[in-house]
Amino acid sequence: MLDYDKEAERYDVSRGGEPRAAAAAEGVLSLVPEGARRLLDVACGTGIVTRRLASGRAGLRVTGVDRAPAMAGHAAARMPGAVVLADGRRLPFREGTFDAVSSVWLLHLVEDRADARRIVAECARVLRPGGVYVTTVDKGASHNVGSDIDVVLAARPPRPASDTAEVVESYALGCGLVPAGEARFPGRGQGRSPRRAIADLRRGWFVTLPPGHPLADGFAARLAALPDQDRPRPDPVFTLRAFRKPLPGMFPDMRSGEEQPPVQADTQRDG
Questions:
Q1: Which of 85, 87, 143, 249 is in the most buried spot, having the most CB atoms within 10 Å?
Q2: pTM of the predicted protein model
Q3: pLDDT, tens digit (0-9, with 9 covering 90-100), for 86-114
Q4: CATH value at residue 180
Q5: Which residues make Cβ contacts (< 8 Å) with residue 105, sequence separation at least 6?
Q6: What angle do CA 32, 37, 43 make, to 5 degrees?
């Protein structure tokens, strides 16, 4: 896994910068109820998306959280007084503090499923009843755009995805949240060229091919043999899922994902 303290300085420029951040924030806000007044952005990174969330809707107060000091430092420079250094597995907020919680590009990094469940559980805990949790799913699959680069990389050692829509939904349901919508947004500026893919390979982007892996040189050579070394291939398209915390007196229908009113007891008895 990348060292995000070391990655902080080049994080934004290597991942589409402001255009990608704008697209991500627009996607998240499309799933946040209009009446939301407080939003928590978990794993806010450099705050480039977090700041867009705050400016994207009048009256919405946004707080960012990240556990990497260098990333949180960049975020704090963008949003003074609105960024907290903390671990998503132990959020330093009271239950029901926020109307919405987001975690963009986080769960795919969490290899331990117990940790992933804990993060989702914490997001659910600090969410008020009626509020929504919005998170990206299937991030790895989003990067497969059917390009010649993807054909080369398809042979790399497999790694089970930790953020598939099905797995994330199971975490959410386990915390009492119910499905509440889906949105997609383009990863603007993230279409890889072969030369960029080689650079990503060398710096440990692909977790099953870390620097020094015996297969890494072979993949680098195959990527170097592709045409148009500096031409970016198509941008990925990311998927967001939203989950709502039911209001008191409602209970989730696990089959439909909809909240159902309580059933009235039948006071008549057979004679």
A1: 143
A2: 0.85
A3: 999 999 999 999 999 999 999 998 989 99
A4: 3.40.50.150
A5: 43, 45, 136, 139, 238
A6: 65
